[in-house]
From TrEMBL:
Name of the molecule in the record: Polyprenyl synthetase family protein
PANTHER family to which the protein is assigned, alphabetical: (2E,6E)-FARNESYL DIPHOSPHATE SYNTHASE, GERANYLGERANYL PYROPHOSPHATE SYNTHASE
A Pfam short name: polyprenyl_synt
Family in the record: Belongs to the FPP/GGPP synthase family.
C-alpha cells in the first residue's frame, strides 16, 4: 500500500510539474508585457521575486489548472503543447481573481507570505488584477484561429460566472442563513466554472468538437465543486503551516461555506446555537465589512468550529466532496458513450484524486 500511495503522489506531481514547466515560460513572457510597476507587482504575486525585488523561489500555487489544460489537449488527440496558451489564459484569470479576492476579503497572507495589496497597496492589486484579465484574452486571441475564438468565448463565460460567484459569496457574509443549494450554486460559479474551462480549453485549442469539450467541462465543473468542498474544510480545520492562511480563516471572514450551511440546515442543539451566534454577528456588523473579528478570541473560533462539526457540517462536506468527485469521473464516459482515451482518463483520475485528498 505504501508503494501504491508513493507512486500515486509521484504521478500527480509529475502532471503538476509538467503543467508548470510548459506554461511558465509563456506566462512570464506575457506578464513581462505589463508596464512598470505592474510587471514587478505581478512577478511578486506569482512568486518569482520577493518584496524587495530579488529573485525568489516561492510557492506559486498548485498549478492544477495548467495541468488540466494540457491533459485536455491530449483528449483531443493533440500534443499537450497545444493547450499551453489555454493553460496560461486560465492561470491569468485565476490570479486576477486571487488579487481582487485577497483585497476584498482583507486576507493578508497567501502562499505563506504577504498578499499583494499588503505589500504594494490596494490600487496596485486592482490594476494588476485587471491587467491579468486583459492579458488572458490577449494570449488566446493573438493565435488568430477559429479554435482560439471558441476558446476565448468559453474563458469569457467562465470569468463572468467566477465574478458572479464572488459577488454571491460576499453577499452571503452579511446574511444569517444561506441554504446549501445557494452555497453550491455560488461555489459552482466561483470555483467550478473556471476549473471547467481549464478542462475544456486545451481540447478546444486542439480542435475537439463541442461534445467532447462539453464532456470535459462537465468533469471540470464537478471537480471544481469537489475542490471547493475540500477548500471549505481546510478554511476551518486546515493547518496554517500547510494552508498558508490563518487558523479558522473562513470563520474570521464570516464565510457561509458548505460546512456552515450544512450545519445550519441540520437542526438540533448545536445547529441552533450556531445560528444564534451568526444572527448576533449580523446585527453587530452594522454594515461594516465583515472582515476578521479582531475582538474574538481563539476560543470563540474554536467553539464555532466545534459546533459546526457537532451539527454534522464537517462530515456532510467531506461526503459532498466525494460525491462531486464521483460525478466528475462519470463524465469521462464521454458524449454518446464515447469514452475518453484511457491515458487521458488515467491522468484526469490522478488529478481528481489529488484534489479530494489534498491538505493545502
Amino acid at each position: 500500500m505504501v508503494v501504491t500511495q508513493t507512486n500515486h503522489l509521484a504521478g500527480t506531481e509529475a502532471l503538476l510539474e509538467r503543467g508548470r514547466d510548459l506554461s511558465t515560460p509563456l506566462l512570464r513572457a506575457v506578464v513581462d508585457r505589463l508596464a512598470p510597476p505592474m510587471d514587478t507587482v505581478a512577478a511578486y504575486h506569482f512568486g518569482w521575486i520577493d518584496a524587495q525585488g530579488r529573485p525568489a523561489r516561492s510557492d506559486g500555487g498548485k498549478a492544477v489548472r495548467p495541468a488540466l489544460a494540457l491533459i485536455s489537449a491530449e483528449a483531443a488527440g493533440a500534443p499537450p503543447q497545444a493547450g499551453v496558451p489555454g493553460a496560461v489564459a486560465v492561470e491569468l484569470v485565476h490570479n486576477f481573481s486571487l488579487l481582487h479576492d485577497d483585497l476584498m476579503d482583507g486576507d493578508e497572507q497567501r502562499r505563506h507570505r504577504d498578499t499583494v495589496w499588503k505589500v504594494h497597496g490596494p490600487a496596485q492589486a486592482i490594476l494588476v488584477g485587471d491587467a491579468l484579465f486583459a492579458l488572458a484574452n490577449e494570449v488566446l486571441l493573438e493565435l488568430g484561429t477559429a479554435d482560439a475564438g471558441r476558446a476565448t468565448r468559453r474563458l469569457t463565460v467562465a470569468t463572468r460566472k467566477l465574478i458572479d460567484g464572488q459577488a454571491q459569496d460576499m453577499s452571503f457574509e452579511g446574511r444569517e442563513r444561506v441554504t446549501v443549494e445557494e452555497c453550491l450554486e455560488m461555489e459552482g460559479n466561483k470555483t467550478g466554472a473556471l476549473l471547467a474551462c481549464a478542462c475544456s480549453i486545451g481540447a478546444v485549442l486542439g480542435g475537439a468538437d463541442d461534445a467532447t469539450a462539453d464532456a470535459l467541462e462537465t468533469y471540470g465543473y464537478h471537480l471544481g465543486l469537489a475542490f471547493q468542498a475540500v477548500d471549505d474544510l481546510l478554511g476551518i480545520w486546515g493547518e496554517p503551516a500547510e494552508t498558508g492562511k490563518q487558523t479558522w480563516s473562513d470563520l474570521r471572514q464570516r464565510k457561509k461555506s458548505l460546512p456552515v450551511c450544512a450545519a445550519l440546515a441540520a437542526g438540533g442543539p448545536a445547529s441552533e446555537k450556531l445560528a444564534a451566534m451568526l444572527a448576533a454577528d449580523a446585527k453587530d456588523g452594522d454594515g461594516e465589512h465583515p472582515g476578521a473579528h479582531e475582538d474574538f478570541s481563539e476560543r470563540e473560533f474554536a467553539t464555532r468550529a466545534a459546533l459546526i462539526e457537532e451539527a454534522g457540517g464537517r462530515e456532510w462536506t467531506a461526503r459532498e466532496a466525494r460525491r462531486q468527485y464521483a460525478t466528475a469521473l462519470a463524465a469521462l464516459d464521454g458524449p454518446e458513450g464515447r469514452a475518453m482515451p484511457e491515458s487521458v482518463r488515467a491522468q484526469l483520475t490522478e488529478l481528481a484524486d489529488f484534489v479530494v485528498e489534498r491538505r493545502r
